[in-house]
Amino acid sequence: MVRLLSHLGYLNTEERSSFEQLVKALPSIIAEAEYSEVYGHPLDGETRINESKDEDVLSPEITKELLIRDRLLLKFLKANLFSFEESKKQLTETLIWRKEFKPLSAAIEETHAADLDKLGIITTFKDPQFNNQERVVTWNLYGAVKNRQELFSRLDQFLRWRVSLMERGLALLKFDYADETEKDLAYMTQLHDYNNVSFLRLDAATKAASKSTIEMFQKYYPEILDKKYFVNVPILMGWIFSVVKVFLAPETVAKFNVLSWGSEVANSLGDWVPEVYGGKETRSLQELNHAEIINPPAWSSVKSSKEKVQEKTETEQKPQPHPTEITPTEAVQTIKN
Question: Which string of DSSP letters, residue by residue, matches 96-149?
Answer without folding.
Answer: HHHHHH-HHHHHHT----HHHHTTEEEEEEEEGGGTTEEEEEEEEETTS-S-HH
